Target: ABC-type quaternary amine transporter
Amino acid sequence: MNDTSTKVRISDLKKTYPNGDGVEHIDLDVHEGEILTMLGPSGCGKSTILRTIAGFERADSGSIIIDGRDVTNLPPEKRPTGMVFQSYNLWPHMTVEENLAFGLKLRKVGKKQISADIDGVLDMIKMPGVQKKYPSQLSGGQQQRIAIARTLLLKPSVMLLDEPFSALDAKIRMQMREELRKLQSRLNITVIFVTHDQEEAMSISHRIVVMRKGAFEQIGTPSEIYDSPATKYVAGFIGEMNMIERQGETIAVRPEDIAIGPDEPFGGRVVGVMNMGHYNQVLISSTEHGDLKAFLRKDDFADLHEGGDIRYRFMKARTYKHAA
Model:
């Protein structure tokens, strides 16, 4: 990834709807060759920004620069972007080959070149030989691969993905994330990805923009977002967190940052132990910090049981002052 080159620059962007929803004062630089993910709950404005970059929504004010060119007032077909949607948007009456060829034909690409390009992109997404199949003959994950391939064939400067994997089951979703990351790295394409799934954002992104109510809460790498959440909202939104309210402040502690041992300063009672695979989730009550959740290695604490006493301390915590 090349952090020194700005691929997309958004300056003071505003897009609001008659009901008052939307975004304003949006400033964002997207680096060449990175996957930048906009993460947040439904209605926070992340898809609005993506659709405005694509040209499907018209900005009320501000500017969008791609490759040094102002595209703010250009229609979608004049922008160097390609968009992949949640719903695949494949034409059911067309074969895979016809779906993939459609955009290339509009660009007057020759038949031989179209055939060669399609063969190449199908090999790239590990789906050779499906040219004559119809979308209904493919699984959801395969259809989404074809939708991504169709966008790749048009060689966009920026690929835009709006919740592309949310309709897939968990295992296929994980596989698609891995494949997207490999494709992005191989082609060094710039990707702007929208999701409400924090695990998805953490697993594929070079940088994450955490959004809330039409505004940015924090921009950073997955490690920065997870280890150093800038606000109480980000701390509570990303990953598991114990939120301990004190007068005038909130103390945030990750479950994995709770240490257990006989000589630790604080005491409580175990009220639940859940086997989570390679670790145990331990619920602790009757503490001076309220109810707590801790993640502990199973092998180290195999003797923990419900109703037993426990001693603990916080290895790391962040404090957020309440607004006056």
Remarks:
- The mean pLDDT is 92.
- The chain has two domains: 6-232, 244-321.
